Amino acid sequence: MKTDKDLRELALLFLRLGSTAFGGPAVHISMFEDEFVNRRTWMNHEHFLDLAGTTNLIPGPNSTEMAMHIGRERAGWKGMIVAGICFILPAVLITFILAWLYSKYGALPEVEPYIYGIKPAVLAIILRAVIPLGRKAVKSTTLAVLGAVALAACLEGINDIMVMLGAGLLALILTVQRNKTETDTSLRSWLIASVPVPSFTLAALTGGTVFLLFLKIGVIWFGSGYVLFGLLDNELVTRGLLNRLQLLDAIAVGQITPGPLFSSVTFVGWQMKGLTGALMATAGILLPAVLFVGLLNPLIPKIRSSKAFSAFLDAVNVASVAVIVAVMLVMGKETLTGWRTVLIALVSLILVFSFKKINSVFILSGSAALGYLLSLI
Q1: Residue 278 maps to a domain
Q2: How far apart are the C-alpha atoms of 30 and 130, rounded to whole Å?
Q3: Is 16 exposed, middle or buried (0-12, 13-18, 19+ CB in 10 A)?
Q4: What are phi and psi of 336, to 5 degrees?
Q5: CB 57 within 8 A of CB 164
Q6: Are the C-beta atoms of 29 and 65 separated by less than 8 Å?
Q7: Domain membership of residue 179 as a residue range
Q8: Domain membership flag for residue 106
Q9: Helix (H, G, I), strand (E, B), or coil: what is residue 347?
Q10: 222-268 residue pLDDT tens
């Protein structure tokens, strides 16, 4: 039976993670894997991969959805809500402050020296998580080949969701061909539920229309935070609701604050309609994620029990690992640009593999301080 103690534990854990999880979904999921699979053993690697794989196939902020999955597993519906809110709360509160300062002074504070040190450490954290996940995901030669093809496709710039869906559908077709007596119709319903909703016309910029606009974005947003930024450009900048400089500053806010990148949405909402706009934008983009996770979570064991769907999920999982590896490689190319960043990355690698129980918080805090000191040289 789930108790208030479970909810308090979830709240404190996700508040801490939300305060220290710099980087994108790959980093956050790596931190979750370290915290809940390795350190606390709340679930095994395979189930964690199932959650991560299915999360990648629904619209919305992936790491926040993963937090909600973990909360639902631990403490039911209340746990799902508590985990989701507490994970995004630090970023949202910080973004509120930055959005107010920006609207008043037209500039953001200088934090680049600290981010300079965090980025190389993030690579070490991802690598520590991706190795055990990869070992669990690659269950056969077929899955190994699928993973390699998925990695190559990601590095060629093919959309992540298309890579994962393609791998899953290929595995599903092959399995159904081998087991023609088994018929599963759930995939068709799931795909129909995932079709983007049609656009609508903004009659007036009110709190309600801001909510509806970001609700639409939340339904059609598949992929990383960078996909979100493209949607914001199409939906807001092209309509004259936001200028491109404001969007670039919103992207910077998403990068310099801990937690999910979609905190940029809170910043954007503030620029559109003040505090009301910030609240409505955040609520609108989160609502689809809450509904999808709430509906999908109980179905995952049933999906795993089906031969065809199990093959689909295995392929999606191995493709998800390939996506994380691709993110790590691209980040490495962009981040390791001099001896300072290489030094921070090496120190971080030594720490995460020599002291496997060390918390990511200490790695990120130390690397931020080291980045600042090296930037003075």
Answers
A1: no
A2: 7
A3: middle
A4: -85, 80
A5: yes
A6: no
A7: 4-193+294-375
A8: yes
A9: helix
A10: 655 655 776 787 778 777 888 777 777 777 677 677 778 778 899 88
Q: Is residue 240 part of a domain?
A: no
| Single-letter residue type at 4 | D
Split into its structural domains, the chain has a count of: 1
**pLDDT at 88 (0 to 100):** 92
Long-range contacts of 147-150 (CB under 8 A, 24+ apart): 147/318, 147/319, 147/321, 147/322, 148/322, 150/318, 150/319, 150/322, 150/323
Picking from 156, 167, 162, the residue whose alpha carbon sits closest to that of residue 329 is 156
DSSP annotation string for 119-185 = HHHHHHHHHHHHHHHHHHH--SHHHHHHHHHHHHHHHTT--HHHHHHHHHHHHHHHHHHH-TT----
How many other β-carbons are positioned within 10 Å of the β-carbon of residue 134?
A: 19
Look up residue 112 and give its two tokens: 């680049």
Residue 65 and residue 292 in contact, taking contact as beta carbons nearer than 8 Å: yes
Dump the DSSP string for 307-351: HHHHHHHHHHHHHHHHHHHHHHHHHHHHH--SHHHHHHHHHHHHH
Report long-range pairs for 186-193 (Cβ below 8 Å, ≥24 apart).
186/299, 186/303, 186/309, 187/309, 187/312
- The answer to whether residue 277 sits within a structural domain is no
Is residue 257 within 8 Å of residue 98, measured between CB atoms?
yes
Structure tokens at 331: 């980040």
State whether the Cα torsion 238-242-248-254 is positive or negative.
negative
HSE on the CB side for 54, CA within 13 Å? Answer: 29
Three-class SS of 69-131? HHHHHHHHHHHHHHHHHHHHHHHHHHHHHHHHHHHHHCCCCCCHHHHHHHHHHHHHHHHHHHH
Q: How far apart are the first and last CA of the chain?
A: 56
Instruction: List the one residue out of 14, 107, 129 whose CA is nearest residue 64.
Output: 14
11/352 Cα distance (integer angstroms): 26
Chunked in runs of 10, what are the mean pLDDT values of the chain (377 residues)?
79 91 76 89 89 79 90 92 93 88 68 71 77 79 87 83 79 71 42 40 66 84 64 77 76 74 86 89 91 86 75 79 80 84 90 77 80 83
